[in-house]
Amino acid sequence: DEIPTVVGIFSAFGLIFSVSLFAWICCQRKSSKSNKTPPYKFVHVLKGVDIYPENLNSKKKFGADDKGEAKNKSTMPKNSLHLDLEKRDLNGNFPKTTPKIQSSPDLENLSPKHFSERKKDSVSPDSLKSIASLSSEDKQDKLGTLFFSLEYNFEKKAFVVNIKEARGLPAMDEQSMTSDPYIKMTILPEKKHKVKTRVLRKTLDPAFDETFTFYGIPYSQIQDLTLHFMILSFDRFSRDDVIGEVLIPLAGIELSEGRLLMDREIIKRNVRKSSGRGELLISLCYQSTTNTLTVVVLKARHLPKSDVSGLSDPYVKVNLYHAKKRISKKKTHVKKCTPNAVFNELFVFDIPCEGLDDISIEFLVLDSDRGSRNEVIGRLTLGSSAEGTGGEHWKEICEYPRRQIAKWHMLCDG
């Protein structure tokens, strides 16, 4: 009788010890996780207010200046770029009477000559050539100036971009003579990081003051990156108007000394000329017995370079029309970074009428873009009223039902 009692006592003590050890290990793991850098792709700070928890920035505004700089900020003149909400108008913009922009308290004591030399040192020779190669038409048609700052946080291993403001934008709305601007920023060449600011209504001098923090970018890779700013004007009823763009190669820009304020003239969007919009290989088969149309999107080739990086992320949207009314739509998967995409995707459409006389099918090749609306690369329409190869292909599938017929087609402008 004594042996089972002793075994039971030892088992109880062993169970209590195991539970205590498990609880201690869980507490240690929880405390170690709280000290790690959060695995965010980027942090968006809007008007100086962080939308993420306080443990991200140790109860400080991420990217804020030190105490010495905070003291100097209290002595800043009224004409500096200090973003004070009390000095803004109803649209959140600065008064137009602001005479001259200064970057930060650190740059107040620098002479204009020294500041220009600092800019020259931070710009690569390639970017200087691109600026010098602006045509006289671009200089005459001024599209405004973009102000932004760059910084690298070595402690967090994060790249910080602050989009401050834009000035002197052109009016894209002819009726109100204003614009509704916003900025889309992409880090090239991989295009993994795409962000955009909020839309500011009816202003030509928008003050965004939005900070984007990108984690997981080593400082050694900063020199290989390029920042692409696309300045657009929001349009509620149609596609947004492109005002212009700014391209900043980071090669030669030194961020180890702290925050760097930069400003660049906005130039016209570089629309690359090409011999065509590319080609699309389509296979069609009409089943008269089941009254269905089988569409196979096979390949695309020679697609134009619609992006600054020189690569597109194409996909195909297929729309079926009956008497000029869309009755069905399908789309393929996105193919990353290629001008010659292989889709091999099959779609089956039910035809609501006998024959294909009132049926047409439209193919839209688009460039996938998470930051804004997808851009149409090219368009193709097949039907009885279509011209060229589109009409010929349609005539063949009508004459030879139950036969899969494939053809290459030239894409036209979207």
TrEMBL record:
Identify the InterPro entries for this entry. C2_dom (IPR000008), C2_domain_sf (IPR035892), Synaptotagmin (IPR001565)
Give TM regions: 6-27
Primary localisation category: membrane
Q: How does it sit in the membrane?
A: Single-pass membrane protein
> Can you say where in the cell this protein is located?
Cytoplasmic vesicle membrane; Endomembrane system
Regions of biased composition (Polar residues) lie at: 94-106
Question: Which keywords does this chain's UniProt record carry?
Answer: Calcium, Cytoplasmic vesicle, Membrane, Metal-binding, Phosphoprotein, Repeat, Transmembrane, Transmembrane helix
Q: Which GO terms describe its cellular component?
A: axon; cytoplasmic vesicle membrane; exocytic vesicle; plasma membrane; presynapse
Compositionally biased region (Basic and acidic residues): 62-72, 81-90, 114-123
Q: What GO MF annotations does this protein's record show?
A: calcium ion binding; calcium-dependent phospholipid binding; clathrin binding; phosphatidylserine binding; SNARE binding
* GO terms classed as biological process: calcium ion-regulated exocytosis of neurotransmitter; negative regulation of secretion by cell; vesicle fusion
Pfam families referenced in this protein's UniProt entry, alphabetically: C2 (PF00168)
Region (Disordered) residue spans: 62-123
Where does the record place the C2 domain?
142-263, 276-409
Q: Of which family is this protein a member?
A: Belongs to the synaptotagmin family.
Q: Would you tell me the protein name for this molecule?
A: SYT4 protein
Encoding gene (name): Syt4
